[in-house]
Amino acid sequence: MVETTQNLVQSDLLRWIPLIPLLGSVVNLFFGRALGKQTAGALASAAVGASFALAFYIFWQLPATGIFRDLVYTWIQSGSFQVNLSFQVDALTAVMLLVVTGIGFLIHLYSLGYMGHDDGMVRFFIYLNLFIFFMLLLVMGDNLLLLFVGWEGVGLCSYLLIGFWYHDHNNTIAGNKAFVVNRIGDLGFIIGILVLVAELGRQGIWTLDFVELQKQVKLLQPGTITLITFLLFIGATGKSAQLPLFVWLPDAMAGPTPVSALIHAATMVTAGVYMTARLHFLFALAPATLALIAVIGAATAFFAATIALTQNDIKKVLAYSTVSQLGYMFLAVGMGAFGAAIFHVFTHAFFKACLFLGSGSVIHALGGEQDMRKMGGLKAHMPKTYWTYVVATLAIAGVPFTAGFFSKDLILWQTLSHGATLLWALGLVTAGMTAFYMFRQLFMVFHGECRAGEHAKAHLHESPAVMTWPLIVLAFGSIFTGWLGAPEYLWGSRWDHWLEPIFGTQVHHGSVNTELLATFLTLAVVTVGIYLAYLMYGKPGTQPAGAASHGIFYDISLNKYYVDEVYDYIFVRPFTAVSKFFASVVDPWVIDGVVNGVAATARGFSTIWRGLQTGNVQHYAAMFLVGVLALLAYYLGQLS
Amino acid sequence: MIALHHYLILSAVIFAIGVIGVLVRRNLIVILMSIELMLNAVNLTFIAFSRYLGSTDGQVVVFFVMAVAAAEAVIGLAIIISVYRHRQSLDPQEMQLLKW
User: Fold this and answer.
1) What is the ipTM of this complex?
2) Minimal CA–CA distance to A513: which of A502, A505, A521?
3) The whole model's pTM is what?
């Protein structure tokens, strides 16, 4: 491969960032039982910690416009088509690296406490390390194929961890659901890759390398680019839980809570956003796809937020809020504001991880209870969890000077300034609903009277330090990470500057006054949301269990728009019916029929012919004679 | 004067008797004798042609055939005795184990 970019720097250190967690996983796989639970967990955490330290070092060394690359070996060589096992780190990857390893490390630490009583702790850490490895492969791969390997790998780990407590059959079902729904998206994704390879190959360019792709992308027809990006986006809707493939994510909450925090909130589900940002040069040339992404994103954000309004399971609320926030990210992608999307990925990772870990702390304290109607008043018992939860709730609700405020506001402003008023309005309403359901949750869990059973009440306790410290770190992140991307009217964005070599300069339309006006409008909506939540759930004397009258909209939202039921009727049942038909009719009659039929036919013919083989030598001799006479007659006939 | 074709006809008749004997008789010893009959019919043909053509080649072949026939008789009779000891019968129709 010709290295035309002069600021491509070889660095052998890169390979160790993903390798260390892989080693941790392998060591625990073979020796984990011998090492014991605590040692194995510590080892796994240390591996991710080392990875984080290395990633931070790389981040520190990375020049403003440079790319670190580490070519390990050539993976596939077929004619002029070549794929390397090779890692690269540029500004975008560096951000993702820090998120994955940093938050991954905190969640590993947290898991030491959370999973401490679990018999499967060693297995848990094996999966967790493996997940970190695949996620790093995903963000560090320098070509689309390597990204895809990571993409599938994290899907596998997600499946394994959702079904971690496999003794409960429902968890296994949830894992299967996640896997199958992701497969649907991945089919689109892999077809997209194949079309890309084929179309570029037709132009004589055989590559999947991102740097090369970016140079050669102009060779493609606009129609082809639209097709490719559309197919790739199908993959993203699966992995990042967008309409219509979002159904797996809420069910994925069956896994242990640290898993929900790491995989189903902070890192893996953002893979779709990362992929679009990584291929931004491709997506930028496909306005039709971008428009579709924006609409899907906004619709998902709105749709999921309406569901989150009425959920009673503490993790389900957070799950739907994750889907909703991912919708925001895709809204930003659809606006071509990749920097804003990644910014939201970054801030969201902190406050959503904090929220999930906080909810995990609550669940842990209540001995596995997840129903918010049976919580309440935990503020006094778990002050650290409470205050970090407050900070993260403020952040996700978008209260000024928290991380969520900056990133969400940036997305909304980008949407408005692009003239997509309707989508902006959707986003605005969603922001209000986000504030409402998050504060509803806060009030239901931590305020009011404790509605837990006597047994649970007696065991209420603040979580150990190994669980609260990650919460505190993440709570700090939930505020200060946002400050990196402040708008122009404050102190300006370092974020845009950092990602400038990747995405180019972010053009800001519109005036500062309009931006301020939009921000105040958002704040007003958020305030209304918080106030409504207080009125309905927070004010002393309200009934948290069923404050609202159970109108038709409440029921629809509570039942998640019956999406699962609809999918069940449209896809699952016909599929099962067809399967049953094949199992009970086609398999025994057609498949077995063909196989047995062949045998029966052969047998039938042989019944006729085997009569000849009497075993009596004299019969054979007679046949012999007949043959000889026939030959004789033939040759005599020839003579005359 | 006995011409060549007399010998050939006689030979053919003996050969046919031998063939029919092999095909229809129910005793292995008789079948073996029928085979000898066929061999000797062939021998007769060889001799007749040898004489007719004035060449000794046919006679040489006849000696070979007689040697082979002697060996065959030895082995054949040995097998027959062995079969009889096993089955107390020499009927080939009862020896049908090698069938479906």
Assistant:
1) 0.85
2) A521
3) 0.79
